[in-house]
Amino acid sequence: MRVSRCTANKGFLPNRAVKCPFCGDSNTQVTDTRENDDGDIVRRRRRCVGCDKRFTTYERIDLKMPHIVKRNGNRSEYERGKLLASMQLALRKRPVTTVALEAAIDRIEARLLAVGETEITSAHIGDLVMKELKKLDKVAYIRFASVYRNFADVDDFSSLVREVQPQSRPRRRETDTPDQSEHDLFDG
């Protein structure tokens, strides 16, 4: 893993205050500080002394993500915002919390960093997104897959729907006789 900058410890002068996003005043106070469960993000609730409005800041380690190689060969910087936007689009009007979505993106980013490469294909990222969406919400998974896989016909779409449907066991009808193995369990 390569660390390019740690915003929690570097990049800020020690006596430099955070400016209020509403009025620009640098006289702000921290009212609450919390770490996430993994301890890699610090959330600070702040209050501006000038306008008395409240806002939240986040401190997270800024790691150097690999460049993205698109299907046409172009390369671009990794942008968390693009990944978030595409997943939010798939999850639109679905019962998935922002916390769950952020955790899924964090897992995708961890996998991208674990690869240890300076470049990674957009197809690999798409596969990681598919895996996370499948765990989060089946409808969102199908929405994303329908665009990502660029289905040629309805049969491709139908096979994906069958893939995520729970397998139901065939129901035994009253006229059916139980098989011998069921009797063996209770005999003897």
Topology:
Blueprint: E1 3-6, E2 28-35, E3 41-48, E4 54-63, E5 67-69, E6 75-76, H1 80-90, H2 98-115, E7 119-121, H3 122-136, H4 138-148, H5 154-164, H6 180-186
Parallel strand pairs: 5-7
Antiparallel strand pairs: 1-4, 2-3, 3-4, 5-6
Notes on the protein architecture:
- It contains six helices and seven strands, in the order E-E-E-E-E-E-H-H-E-H-H-H-H.
- It has helices spanning 80-90, 98-115, 122-136, 138-148, 154-164, 180-186; strands at residues 3-6, 28-35, 41-48, 54-63, 67-69, 75-76, 119-121.
- 39% of the residues lie in helices and 20% in strands.
- Residues 1-15 and 180-188 have low confidence and may be disordered.
- The strands form two sheets. A four-stranded antiparallel beta sheet has the order 1-4-3-2, with no helix packed on it.
- It folds into two domains: 1-64; 65-164.
- A hairpin with a 5-residue loop joins strand 3 and strand 4 (54-63).
- The chain is an alpha+beta fold.
